[in-house]
Amino acid sequence: MATAKDYLLNDSLDLVITNGDFKKTSSDQQSSILLLNCNIGSFKFHPFAGMGIKRYQGSDGTEQIMKRQIFVQHEADGMKVKTVINKDFQFWIDCSRPGFD
Fold first, then answer.
1. Once rounded to an integer, what is the mean pLDDT over residues 21-45?
2. pTM over 0.85
3. Half-sphere exposure in the Cβ direction for 82 (13 Å, CA)
């Protein structure tokens, strides 16, 4: 089974370099984390990508808006979202890339 690949980022979102070379990894989970945490306008070549999830924290009545944004952002990135579960701002997103699952 083939998966989409990208350069690996650590928890601080810095590139991981091993033996003087960039390390590659399956990128779906990493892409999802970036889409959730980055604000709209963070990516020069994709200015509408990102949802800035921190701006929703502490707000009442935003769960449906957040779920909709998760679907929209992931589908714009080429992923098919099956389900989104939110429990106390801990998200579980079941998604896959067509052609890679």
1. 89
2. no
3. 7
Query: 63-76 vs 28-37: helix axis angle to the nearest 10?
Result: 130
Task: Output the six-digit token pair for 25.
Answer: 């990894």
Grouping H, G, I as helix, E, B as strand and the rest as coil, residue 3 is: coil
Q: How high is the pLDDT of residue 96?
A: 83
Q: Are 2 and 24 in contact (CB under 8 A)?
A: no
Q: What does the block give as tokens for 88?
A: 């106390």
Give the integer Cα–Cα distance in Å for 53 and 51.
Answer: 6
Q: Tell me, what's the pLDDT at 97?
A: 83
Cα Dmax for the chain: 48
Question: Could you read off the pLDDT of 5-25 as tens digits, one per residue?
Answer: 889 999 888 999 999 999 998
Phi, psi angle pair for 70, to nearest 5°: -60, -45
Long-range contacts of 63-66 (CB under 8 A, 24+ apart): none
